[in-house]
Protein backbone atom coordinates (compact mmCIF):
# COMPACT_ATOMS: atom_id res chain seq x y z
CA UNK A 1 0.00 0.00 0.00
CA UNK A 2 1.41 3.40 -1.00
CA UNK A 3 1.63 6.56 1.01
CA UNK A 4 -1.43 8.85 1.00
CA UNK A 5 0.46 11.59 -0.86
CA UNK A 6 2.04 9.39 -3.54
CA UNK A 7 1.81 10.14 -7.27
CA UNK A 8 3.32 8.92 -10.51
CA UNK A 9 3.63 11.22 -13.49
CA UNK A 10 4.64 11.71 -17.09
CA UNK A 11 8.26 12.91 -16.69
CA UNK A 12 7.90 15.05 -19.82
CA UNK A 13 4.70 16.78 -18.73
CA UNK A 14 4.72 17.21 -14.95
CA UNK A 15 2.08 19.46 -13.42
CA UNK A 16 1.33 20.26 -9.79
CA UNK A 17 -2.32 19.59 -9.08
CA UNK A 18 -4.67 20.98 -6.46
CA UNK A 19 -4.76 17.49 -4.94
CA UNK A 20 -0.98 17.51 -4.48
CA UNK A 21 -1.15 20.85 -2.70
CA UNK A 22 -4.00 19.54 -0.54
CA UNK A 23 -1.86 16.53 0.43
CA UNK A 24 1.04 18.86 1.27
CA UNK A 25 -1.24 20.89 3.55
CA UNK A 26 -2.90 17.84 5.13
CA UNK A 27 0.05 15.46 5.51
CA UNK A 28 3.12 17.67 5.08
CA UNK A 29 4.39 15.90 1.95
CA UNK A 30 3.69 14.42 -1.48
CA UNK A 31 5.74 11.99 -3.59
CA UNK A 32 6.84 12.35 -7.23
CA UNK A 33 9.19 10.47 -9.61
CA UNK A 34 12.31 12.20 -10.97
CA UNK A 35 15.61 11.50 -12.77
CA UNK A 36 18.93 9.75 -12.23
CA UNK A 37 22.00 11.29 -10.54
CA UNK A 38 24.30 8.42 -9.60
CA UNK A 39 27.02 9.18 -12.14
CA UNK A 40 27.19 12.80 -11.04
CA UNK A 41 27.62 12.32 -7.28
CA UNK A 42 29.33 8.96 -6.79
CA UNK A 43 32.76 10.43 -7.36
CA UNK A 44 35.65 11.93 -5.43
CA UNK A 45 34.77 15.37 -6.76
CA UNK A 46 31.88 15.30 -4.27
CA UNK A 47 33.02 12.88 -1.57
CA UNK A 48 36.19 14.87 -0.81
CA UNK A 49 33.89 17.51 0.71
CA UNK A 50 32.18 15.03 3.09
CA UNK A 51 32.15 15.31 6.87
CA UNK A 52 30.55 13.07 9.46
CA UNK A 53 27.49 13.45 11.69
CA UNK A 54 27.74 11.09 14.64
CA UNK A 55 24.85 9.58 16.57
CA UNK A 56 24.82 8.42 20.20
CA UNK A 57 26.29 5.05 19.16
CA UNK A 58 29.24 6.76 17.44
CA UNK A 59 28.09 5.66 14.01
CA UNK A 60 28.31 8.28 11.32
CA UNK A 61 26.29 9.47 8.37
CA UNK A 62 28.21 11.45 5.78
CA UNK A 63 27.14 14.97 4.85
CA UNK A 64 28.17 17.00 1.79
CA UNK A 65 26.50 20.39 1.48
CA UNK A 66 26.73 23.31 -0.93
CA UNK A 67 25.29 26.81 -1.08
CA UNK A 68 24.50 27.38 -4.76
CA UNK A 69 23.29 24.92 -7.42
CA UNK A 70 26.02 25.48 -10.01
CA UNK A 71 25.97 24.28 -13.62
CA UNK A 72 26.70 20.57 -13.30
CA UNK A 73 24.10 17.78 -13.45
CA UNK A 74 23.08 18.27 -9.80
CA UNK A 75 22.70 21.98 -10.49
CA UNK A 76 20.41 21.32 -13.42
CA UNK A 77 18.24 19.18 -11.16
CA UNK A 78 18.15 21.83 -8.43
CA UNK A 79 17.25 24.51 -10.98
CA UNK A 80 14.82 22.58 -13.17
CA UNK A 81 11.23 23.69 -13.60
CA UNK A 82 9.90 20.38 -12.33
CA UNK A 83 11.50 20.82 -8.92
CA UNK A 84 11.66 24.60 -8.54
CA UNK A 85 8.27 25.18 -10.13
CA UNK A 86 6.71 22.61 -7.81
CA UNK A 87 8.11 24.43 -4.76
CA UNK A 88 6.93 27.79 -6.08
CA UNK A 89 3.43 26.47 -6.71
CA UNK A 90 3.23 24.92 -3.24
CA UNK A 91 4.80 27.82 -1.33
CA UNK A 92 2.98 30.44 -3.38
CA UNK A 93 5.78 32.62 -4.69
CA UNK A 94 9.32 32.95 -5.99
CA UNK A 95 11.81 30.64 -4.28
CA UNK A 96 15.58 30.51 -4.21
CA UNK A 97 18.04 27.69 -3.60
CA UNK A 98 18.68 27.64 0.16
CA UNK A 99 21.21 24.80 -0.12
CA UNK A 100 21.58 21.20 -1.27
CA UNK A 101 22.71 18.31 0.91
CA UNK A 102 24.02 14.92 -0.11
CA UNK A 103 23.52 12.47 2.78
CA UNK A 104 25.44 9.21 2.64
CA UNK A 105 25.02 6.09 4.77
CA UNK A 106 27.51 3.31 4.12
CA UNK A 107 26.41 -0.32 4.17
CA UNK A 108 26.44 -1.87 7.65
CA UNK A 109 27.87 1.23 9.34
CA UNK A 110 25.79 4.26 8.36
CA UNK A 111 24.48 6.16 11.38
CA UNK A 112 20.99 7.43 12.12
CA UNK A 113 19.58 10.94 12.06
CA UNK A 114 17.48 11.83 15.09
CA UNK A 115 13.92 13.17 14.99
CA UNK A 116 13.87 16.81 13.92
CA UNK A 117 12.14 19.46 11.88
CA UNK A 118 14.26 21.21 9.27
CA UNK A 119 12.85 24.49 10.58
CA UNK A 120 14.26 23.54 13.97
CA UNK A 121 17.62 24.32 12.34
CA UNK A 122 16.55 27.02 9.91
CA UNK A 123 14.69 29.10 12.51
CA UNK A 124 18.05 29.55 14.24
CA UNK A 125 19.46 30.88 10.95
CA UNK A 126 17.09 33.85 10.90
CA UNK A 127 14.30 32.52 8.66
CA UNK A 128 11.32 34.25 10.28
CA UNK A 129 8.59 32.09 8.76
CA UNK A 130 8.35 28.35 7.92
CA UNK A 131 8.13 29.15 4.20
CA UNK A 132 10.73 26.58 3.16
CA UNK A 133 10.49 23.07 1.76
CA UNK A 134 12.68 20.13 0.87
CA UNK A 135 12.88 17.72 -2.06
CA UNK A 136 14.29 14.37 -0.87
CA UNK A 137 15.66 12.41 -3.86
CA UNK A 138 17.14 8.92 -3.27
CA UNK A 139 20.25 8.04 -5.25
CA UNK A 140 19.79 4.42 -4.09
CA UNK A 141 16.67 2.49 -3.16
CA UNK A 142 15.72 3.54 0.37
CA UNK A 143 14.12 0.92 2.59
CA UNK A 144 13.79 0.23 6.30
CA UNK A 145 16.96 -1.84 6.66
CA UNK A 146 19.26 0.71 5.03
CA UNK A 147 17.93 3.66 7.00
CA UNK A 148 15.18 5.17 4.89
CA UNK A 149 13.30 8.30 5.87
CA UNK A 150 10.58 8.01 8.51
CA UNK A 151 8.01 10.73 9.17
CA UNK A 152 5.19 11.68 11.52
CA UNK A 153 2.35 12.39 9.15
CA UNK A 154 0.66 15.73 9.78
CA UNK A 155 3.22 16.82 12.38
CA UNK A 156 3.96 20.00 10.40
CA UNK A 157 0.66 21.36 11.72
CA UNK A 158 2.06 21.59 15.25
CA UNK A 159 4.35 24.45 14.25
CA UNK A 160 7.99 24.68 15.20
CA UNK A 161 8.88 22.88 18.42
CA UNK A 162 11.95 23.41 20.55
CA UNK A 163 15.19 21.85 19.27
CA UNK A 164 18.36 21.23 21.23
CA UNK A 165 21.81 19.92 20.43
CA UNK A 166 21.90 16.16 21.17
CA UNK A 167 25.29 14.45 20.66
CA UNK A 168 26.36 15.98 17.30
CA UNK A 169 22.86 16.61 15.99
CA UNK A 170 20.10 19.10 16.72
CA UNK A 171 16.93 17.20 17.64
CA UNK A 172 13.33 17.86 18.59
CA UNK A 173 12.30 18.22 22.23
CA UNK A 174 11.87 14.62 23.40
CA UNK A 175 8.80 15.15 25.59
CA UNK A 176 6.89 17.01 22.88
CA UNK A 177 8.03 14.41 20.35
CA UNK A 178 6.49 11.57 22.38
CA UNK A 179 3.16 13.39 22.60
CA UNK A 180 3.16 13.95 18.83
CA UNK A 181 3.97 10.29 18.19
CA UNK A 182 0.75 9.42 19.99
CA UNK A 183 -1.41 11.46 17.58
CA UNK A 184 0.51 11.57 14.27
CA UNK A 185 0.80 8.35 12.21
CA UNK A 186 4.38 7.07 11.94
CA UNK A 187 5.20 6.34 8.30
CA UNK A 188 8.22 4.48 6.94
CA UNK A 189 8.92 6.10 3.57
CA UNK A 190 10.44 3.43 1.34
CA UNK A 191 11.40 4.89 -2.04
CA UNK A 192 13.03 3.81 -5.27
CA UNK A 193 16.04 5.62 -6.70
CA UNK A 194 14.76 8.66 -8.58
CA UNK A 195 11.57 9.15 -6.55
CA UNK A 196 11.14 12.53 -4.87
CA UNK A 197 9.49 13.32 -1.56
CA UNK A 198 8.54 17.00 -1.26
CA UNK A 199 7.97 17.96 2.36
CA UNK A 200 7.23 20.87 4.69
CA UNK A 201 10.03 22.31 6.82
CA UNK A 202 8.05 21.57 10.02
CA UNK A 203 7.43 17.89 9.20
CA UNK A 204 9.08 15.73 11.87
CA UNK A 205 11.37 13.12 10.33
CA UNK A 206 14.19 10.75 11.17
CA UNK A 207 16.16 7.92 9.58
CA UNK A 208 17.63 4.81 11.17
CA UNK A 209 20.90 2.88 11.06
CA UNK A 210 21.96 1.25 7.82
CA UNK A 211 22.10 -2.42 8.82
CA UNK A 212 21.91 -3.65 5.22
CA UNK A 213 24.49 -4.69 2.63
CA UNK A 214 23.63 -1.68 0.43
CA UNK A 215 24.56 1.97 0.79
CA UNK A 216 21.90 4.66 1.11
CA UNK A 217 22.63 8.00 -0.52
CA UNK A 218 20.11 10.80 -1.00
CA UNK A 219 20.30 14.22 -2.68
CA UNK A 220 18.29 16.87 -0.84
CA UNK A 221 17.82 20.33 -2.39
CA UNK A 222 16.05 22.85 -0.14
CA UNK A 223 14.23 26.04 -1.08
CA UNK A 224 13.17 29.24 0.67
CA UNK A 225 10.65 31.87 -0.39
CA UNK A 226 12.21 35.12 -1.59
CA UNK A 227 10.02 37.01 0.88
CA UNK A 228 11.44 34.90 3.75
CA UNK A 229 14.99 36.15 3.27
CA UNK A 230 16.91 35.33 6.49
CA UNK A 231 17.60 38.28 8.77
CA UNK A 232 21.04 36.91 9.74
CA UNK A 233 23.99 36.13 7.54
CA UNK A 234 24.88 32.48 8.14
CA UNK A 235 26.22 29.35 6.43
CA UNK A 236 23.33 29.14 3.93
CA UNK A 237 22.65 31.83 1.33
CA UNK A 238 20.40 34.79 1.72
CA UNK A 239 18.14 35.54 -1.22
CA UNK A 240 19.95 34.82 -4.47
CA UNK A 241 17.89 34.86 -7.72
CA UNK A 242 17.58 31.35 -9.13
CA UNK A 243 17.95 30.86 -12.87
CA UNK A 244 15.51 28.08 -13.70
CA UNK A 245 16.13 25.65 -16.55
CA UNK A 246 13.75 23.34 -18.46
CA UNK A 247 13.41 19.76 -17.24
CA UNK A 248 15.25 18.55 -20.34
CA UNK A 249 18.42 20.27 -19.09
CA UNK A 250 19.12 17.41 -16.68
CA UNK A 251 19.48 14.80 -19.41
CA UNK A 252 21.14 17.24 -21.81
CA UNK A 253 23.80 18.33 -19.33
CA UNK A 254 27.19 16.68 -19.83
CA UNK A 255 28.96 18.69 -17.12
CA UNK A 256 30.03 16.30 -14.36
CA UNK A 257 33.39 17.81 -13.44
CA UNK A 258 33.00 21.57 -13.21
CA UNK A 259 31.62 22.30 -9.74
CA UNK A 260 32.60 25.96 -9.73
CA UNK A 261 30.18 28.31 -8.03
CA UNK A 262 28.64 25.68 -5.74
CA UNK A 263 30.57 26.81 -2.63
CA UNK A 264 30.79 23.67 -0.51
CA UNK A 265 30.14 24.05 3.21
CA UNK A 266 32.63 23.21 5.92
CA UNK A 267 31.45 21.97 9.34
CA UNK A 268 32.94 24.90 11.25
CA UNK A 269 30.38 27.21 9.60
CA UNK A 270 27.36 25.44 11.07
CA UNK A 271 26.60 26.15 14.72
CA UNK A 272 23.60 23.78 14.80
CA UNK A 273 25.72 20.59 14.61
CA UNK A 274 28.97 19.24 16.02
CA UNK A 275 30.37 17.71 12.85
CA UNK A 276 33.84 16.56 11.90
TrEMBL record:
Recorded hits in InterPro entries, A to Z, give:
Phytyl_CoA_dOase-like (IPR008775)
Q: Which organism is it from?
A: Elysia crispata
Lineage top rank: taxon: Eukaryota
Protein's recorded name: Uncharacterized protein
Reported cofactor(s)? Fe cation
